[in-house]
Structure formats: C-alpha cells, structure tokens
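Hi team, as promised in this morning's meeting, here are the two structures we talked about. I've kept the exact order from the run log so nobody has to guess. The first one is mostly here for context; it's the second one we should focus on when we meet again. Sequence first, then the predicted structure tokens.
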Amino acid sequence: MLPGVFKATKKDGTVYYRSSFTYQNKHISLGSFPTEWTAHTAYAEASNIMSSSCSIQDYSDVFTISFEKYVILVNFRDNEMYFKTPIYLKQKYFYYYFSKKDYLIFDTDDLFYYSSHKIMRRQGHLFVADYGMQVNILSRYGIKNYAVPGKDYIFINGNTSDYRYGNITIINKYHGVSMETKDGKEQFKTKIHIHGDFLVGIYPSETEAAIAYNKAIDVLKKKGFKKEFANNYIEGLSPRKYAEIYSELKIAKKIREFEIQ
C-alpha cells in the first residue's frame, strides 16, 4: 500500500481505500476513496497543508481532500486545536465555513457547541442535530422558528452571517406580537392566526401585548376552537401581577364574538 492508505471492504464485497495521517500525535482520518492512488493523494495533500502556510482561501476544486477537512486541518495547524467541524478559530470569535465565501461568525462562547454539532441548511434555515431533533440555531438567542429577520430580529452591523450575541437584537420576542412606531412612539400590535390573521389589539407595552395574545387563546379555547397555540411566557412577572394585567386587558370584539363554523 502507498503511504497513508489502508484497504477496506464494504459489506457487499466492494473494495475501497481509507486515508489517514498523524500530526502532533493526533491520528486524523481523511476519508474514504475509490482508488489507492486518490487515497494516497489525500494523504500527500494533508501532509503539505500541515507543513505549508496555505490559507482557507487557497483551497480549490483540484484538491482530493474535501473543503470541510481542509478547514479542519488548516485550523489545527494554525491554532493547535482539532475540531471535527469546519471551524477556524480567531482570538475572540470563530468562523464556521460552508465554502470559501460562505461562512458564519460566532462568539467563542459557542465554540464547544459547534465543534460537536454540525450545522445544516434547509430552505434557508440553519439547524443542528441535537438529541435526535433538528434544532434551529436561532433558538440559542431566544428567537422563534417563524421569526423574520429585519422584522423580529436584526443584525446590528448588517452582516446576516454574523451570529455573535452582541450583533443580534431581538425586536419581537413573543408569539403574535410586533412592535411598530406611530407618531414617534412605540406601540405593540397583537395578532392571532385563526383563518387568517385577526387583530387582538394594540397595546402600550410588549408585556401587555404578549398577555393579550394569551387571553385571546383562552377566549378561543372556551369557544371550542381546537387549534393548538403556543402561549407566551413572560419572565420576571409574578402570578399576581400577571393576573392583574390579564384581567384589565381588552381584546378585540371580533375575537370575543368569534364563532366556529
């Protein structure tokens, strides 16, 4: 066998070749390949990466090694930390790469999480597999799955790839609640989706708007409406204070008199 190559056999008897090498006493798998030569080429590329000063941007399609593995090796060489995901570590943040020009930026507080959770894309959403479930990465910021960027949360510096905590501001954190400005003053509109969006009311505070949404749910349930709604949970509010606000809130007549058809 050529250096760095190991012959293997699939269950159906098909022969393939695995490639690996050792760097700083770390044994690193480079992947599986259809021929002995391509497996050896991956080994040679990895050896060259670790002994050169190539950067992430030097990767090209002529490489046998995958882009993901390339990033992993370059980071290990430069930062002496090995991760199983395509992370490149900086002093106070890190890049998570999908391609040379496609990456996300995270705080180092998230390093342990994303070094053990691979990020996937689905219909523009970003997920990780966690305990057998697909979890939207926005949930780590307290952002709901249905939230709309620019409306429910914003990236302060305008870079929608920058997921550092200080760069994300949540505008609307409750179900059915959106903030708007009228005559230079903030107000909070509450809507609930029945057969289309129904206006519950407009309120002076976000807390009142969130509780109004819960009250609208209760009214609909009493009328026999079967749809499952997610209630808003308001932190730092005592049960007594919640009950006071709840009892005083007015909700739209259209909701109070809604009839199931």
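And here is the second protein, the one for discussion:
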Amino acid sequence: MMHGKKHHWIAWHPTRDTVVAMVTALIMICGGYYLMVHLPEGIMKQSYSFLFTVFLVVFPLWWLYKNHQDILQETGIKKQGLMLSLLISILLAIFFLYFVLMRYGSYGDALIPHFLTNGLILWEPFFLFAWLQIRFDKAFGILPGILLTGCVLGAYHIGTYPALMILVLMGFGWIFAALFRITMNLFIMWPLTWSISSAEGTLKGGFLLGWDEACMAGMVLCIQILVILYLWNRQKTELL
C-alpha cells in the first residue's frame, strides 16, 4: 500500500481528525449543500455559495496545518502516484465525455462553460477525497473509508435530486473513492475526472452552468490555491 505504512481493510483508530471530519460531513449533509442550490437567486445565494465553497477547502487545510506537519501529504497533493493518477483521470474523462456528448451534444457551445465550471470546482473532490476519505481511511480502514465517502456524496444531494439519482451518485461515490484509494493522489479526481463526470451529473440534474458560474468558480479556486500555497510555505518555514 501507499506511504510505506501498513493499512488495514477495516480498522479502529479514530482521532480528533475523525471527529472534525464527521462534523464537517454533517454540516454538508444537514443543509450546507442544500442551501447552495435552493436559496433564492440573488446576492444572498451568490455570497453564501462563494463563502461556503471557500470554507470547504480552507477549513480542512487550516485544521491540518494546525495539527500535522505536511498538509500536502495529508491531502494527497503530491508527486507520489502523479503519473498513474493523470493516466487514470484521462481515461475516465474520455469515458464520461463520450456519454455527455452522446446525450447532450445538442447543447453545442453551451457545454464549454459547463465543462469549465465543473473543472474549476476544487471544493467537491477535495472535500470528499482529500479531506473526508483520507480521515475515514486512517480511522476506520480502507473499506469503511470508501463506503463512508460514497454515502456522504449521496447524502448531501438529498432534497436536490430524486431518490434514484441519489443512489446512482452514491454508487459513483464508491467507485471514485475506490479509484482514489489506488494512488491517494488528488489529481486522479481533479480536475479532469471531476470536470467531465460532474458535468454529466449536473446535466442529469437539470443544471446547465454558464460563464457567470465559471467566473465565480474561478475566483473561489484562486482563493483556495492561494491558501494552499500560503499555509504550505508557512509550514515549511516553521519546520526550518
């Protein structure tokens, strides 16, 4: 397995990290995501979506910065497994692109900002895999980590998608979590895999994202990257 450590299919080693990860998952499930979708259109919805999606990356990074010595390793942002991750992500992107174009090719150029927006969205794959799954894996083992991650993905869509679609999302969550576990590298999921697979999921849910959403996703991503770089650099400086 990865990292040169012994990993178990099932384990029991919960820590403070586990509790904090569980709390953030509950926040997401119990209305956090729902409000992003269902608040009335306007400045309140835009502000909430902006702040909440920033929070979903910045808070885990801050917590890991305070409690661990290597936030990049702790979130799967690393060189280890990078080439395999990119290869798998390219294959997955091609697979999903075929189905998107087959079903929604009639949208034409409108798909460009839709794909772009989904590719700029770091918060969802980061929150699910880099934050939750790695914490669940360490606390409960490989199999529970995969199962819990998929369940969280399905659960926070309750109220937004019909029941059958929730089960489909949960199933894809399990598949993606199993794939992520191969390399434990975030780039196996982001940006390529998430851009195309999430594009199909949002289209199935009746959401066609445009340039306004792409601009907001880009601004959120810039903040998230700046925070990652700032905390990583500060952590390196403190360890000298």
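Starting points for discussion:
The chain has a mean pLDDT of 95.
The two ends are 30 Å apart (CA to CA).
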